[in-house]
From TrEMBL:
Residues 87-112 are annotated as: Disordered. Its cofactor is [4Fe-4S] cluster; [3Fe-4S] cluster. It comes from the Bacteria. Residues 1-30, 31-60 form the 4Fe-4S ferredoxin-type domain. This is Ferredoxin. It comes from Sulfitobacter mediterraneus. Residues 95-104 have a biased composition (Basic and acidic residues). Ferredoxins are iron-sulfur proteins that transfer electrons in a wide variety of metabolic reactions. Keywords: 3Fe-4S, 4Fe-4S, Electron transport, Iron, Iron-sulfur, Metal-binding, Repeat, Transport.
Length: 112
């Protein structure tokens, strides 16, 4: 099992999760985070830290695409281990549907 970040993170990018991760397996894109599925140790401490409920176990239905999504971008984006401010539109976008199609950016974040 591993944990993944889904599209609920897009355009919010809360980073509360990165500080509690004991193995530093979060990676930062311009407007979301992902978890490297091969680095995640399945501890689950990050899941309750996410205000957007964007971190889910891969054992839930239809998570295969998110495992591969997280794998792809974790190999392209820089690691993030320090909490940062959420995106300015986070509160407005939190809970919005269709965020992958509307807002996702493949651009890397700054990391750090």
């Amino acid at each position: 099992m591993t944990y993944i970040v889904n599209d609920a993170c897009i355009a919010c990018k809360y980073t509360d999760c990165v500080e509690v991760c004991p193995v530093d397996c979060f990676y930062e894109g311009e407007n979301m985070l992902v978890i490297h599925p091969d680095e995640c140790i399945d501890c689950g401490v990050c899941e309750p830290e996410c205000p957007a409920d964007a971190i889910r176990p891969d054992t839930e239905p239809d998570m295969e695409k998110w495992v591969e999504f997280n794998r792809k971008y974790s190999e392209l984006w820089p690691v993030i281990i320090t909490k940062k401010d959420q995106l300015p539109e986070a509160e407005e976008r939190d809970g919005e549907s269709g965020k992958l199609e509307k807002y996702f950016s493949e651009a890397p974040g700054e990391g750090g």
